[in-house]
């Protein structure tokens, strides 16, 4: 949990609160994507569509941040905070 917050606060400094928070709250989606591998759950079309929608939204937001001149390092910190959130 501490690593997640460290990455999140680093992302706050790099890219701002709004984009970093959106990346951070993709953590539960990562858990949903890993559930078939870890818990042997069945992957339904609705789950795949939801996961694809979240990834598409995350890419659109990150593309906007990249176009505005935000650093790639900050975006990576945001994604790493989401991964750490999912692991916790």
Give the CA-based shape: flat
Alpha-carbon distance between the two ends: 6 Å
Elements, N to C (H/E):
HHHHH
Largest sheet: none
Name the poorly predicted regions.
none
Radius of gyration: 14 Å
Structural class: mainly alpha
Strand coverage percent: under 5%
Q: What proportion of the residues is helical, as a percent range?
A: over 70%
| Helix segment tally | 5
**Average pLDDT:** 86
Summarize the helices and strands and which ones pair or pack:
Elements: H1 2-15, H2 17-24, H3 27-38, H4 45-67, H5 72-87
Helix pairs in contact: 1-2, 1-5, 2-5, 3-4, 3-5
Describe what you observe in this structure:
It is flat, with a radius of gyration of 14 Å. The chain has one domain. The protein is an all-alpha fold and 88 residues long. The protein is built from five helices and no strands.
Question: Which properties best describe this structure?
Answer:
single chain, 88 residues, mainly alpha, 83% helix
Brief write-up:
This protein is mainly alpha-helical and 88 residues long. It contains 5 helices and no strands.
């Amino acid at each position: 949990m501490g690593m997640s917050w460290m990455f999140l606060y680093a992302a706050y400094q790099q890219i701002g609160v709004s984009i970093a928070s959106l990346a951070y709250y993709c953590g539960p989606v990562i858990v949903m994507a890993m559930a078939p591998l870890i818990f042997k759950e069945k992957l339904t079309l609705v789950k795949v569509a939801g996961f694809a929608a979240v990834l598409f939204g995350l890419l659109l937001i990150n593309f906007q941040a990249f176009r505005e001149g935000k650093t790639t390092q900050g975006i990576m910190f945001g994604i790493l905070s989401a991964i750490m959130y999912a692991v916790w």
